[in-house]
Amino acid sequence: MKAKTREERNAAFFAKTNWQLFLILLLMVACFFTWSENVVITRGIKVVGRLGMLYASYYVYKSIINYGAVDSLKVHNPLSSAFYGIYLLIGFASFMWSTNVGYSSLQWFMTSQTLVFCYYFVKSLYLLDHFFPEHPIRMFNLVGNTSFLLILVFVVGMWVNPDAFYRLTHGGEEARLGGYMMNPNELGMLAGIGVAGLLFDIRRNHRRVWTVVKLLVLFYGLMATGSRSSLIGALLIIGFHVLQSEQKQFAIAAIIVMALVSPIAIYKVVLKDGDPERMEEVMSMTGRLPFWQALINEGLPREPLLGFGFMRIDYKEFFQSTHTYPGKMTHNTFMQVLMNLGFIGLTMVFFQIVFTVRGILAENNEKKLMLFSMLIPIVINSFTEFGIYGESNYGILFYQLVILYISFKASSIITPAQRVHLRKRRPDLTV
């Protein structure tokens, strides 16, 4: 039997690693869904599943090192990750004054666990970039395919079992894709992230016909969620790609699609067919504006500096003003930080975002476009739902991927032990 060449072994290793990273990310995101109405099963999936995917991401990271790499990466854009760490430290300290320590600690540990998962996931990609520059694995492809497959499950489910996959709102007058398994706005955000990832496959002419089919499924699912913010985000992503594109054919095709889809989509989803009663709802952001006003006027003065504790917005389980609905979360990630960690926490978050954006702007064009494309749907979602600093959700996971993707840089400095490891594993590599 003929021995495999180094190129053949590398190709097999890349294919295996690509599938591993895809499945790990897919299952990690899937663990944020409520797949069963049984509380015990749901908690088991969320806790055991996420911890399992954390270990799996570490396993892939170690397998890349064992195959022929060393972790010689150095810190890059330290202020972005440092301020995120400060935010988590303040959250941890808030256990001392939290109005529900058990809930605060659970949310904090889930957010921290996701961060560790992202740490090894992103490091795996960086090690591949540095030691195997010819590898075909791309983060935008992994993110796009993950989102597509999960949205596809819901699109198929809405036809096979609509009772489970639809959520009735407005007194049963409107059915939105998501069911009890996922908030429709969060599901729409996931579709937007999928669009952000797969547009890069179009740009690099990677299986273009199949990718167009995936994008159509994502838009179909997005429309079915009825999420106004997610639709706006998806259209902004396409516009952002068009502005940045140097490919005239891609730009023309994208403009034509937007011109055909946008008027119908905005009329149906954003303006709700022009219904006057629904338009009034749109103007008040489904009651969110008076709720935010009540939070600032009544809730914030009680604990202005340090808040009520990590992911807590009142002394009780729900905040309720005289003229607003009761709410356990603020439906705005920045308001959420203000209420649970006060002005001190909000200041740390503000600087963290500033340094993250500054770090992205310093990257090369493709990486910059990819990260901003991912940010668009999750930041827009942050103004109306859980968001990047809210209760544990996969929007936080994607934001942590963005932060860590600008936090490392290849280094030419390696230790003697690492040098020996490379000589043993990679005799073809000049150390």
Automatic annotation (TrEMBL):
Q: Pfam families under this entry?
A: Wzy_C (PF04932)
Q: How does it sit in the membrane?
A: Multi-pass membrane protein
Q: Which UniProt keywords apply?
A: Ligase, Membrane, Transmembrane, Transmembrane helix
Q: Which residues span the membrane?
A: 12-35, 82-100, 106-128, 140-160, 180-200, 212-238, 250-270, 333-357, 369-390, 396-417
Q: List the InterPro entries.
A: O-antigen_ligase-rel_domated, WaaL-like
> Which PROSITE patterns does the protein's record reference?
PROKAR_LIPOPROTEIN
The residue stretches assigned to a coiled coil in this entry are none
Q: What is the lineage of its organism?
A: Bacteria, Pseudomonadati, Bacteroidota, Cytophagia, Cytophagales
What are the recorded GO MF terms, alphabetically?
ligase activity
Q: What is the name of the protein in this document?
A: O-antigen ligase
Q: Where's the O-antigen ligase-related domain?
A: 215-349
Show the GO cellular component annotation of the record.
membrane
Per its UniProt record, what PANTHER family does this chain match? LIPOPOLYSACCHARIDE BIOSYNTHESIS PROTEIN PA4999-RELATED, TEICHURONIC ACID BIOSYNTHESIS PROTEIN TUAE
| Compartment(s) | Membrane
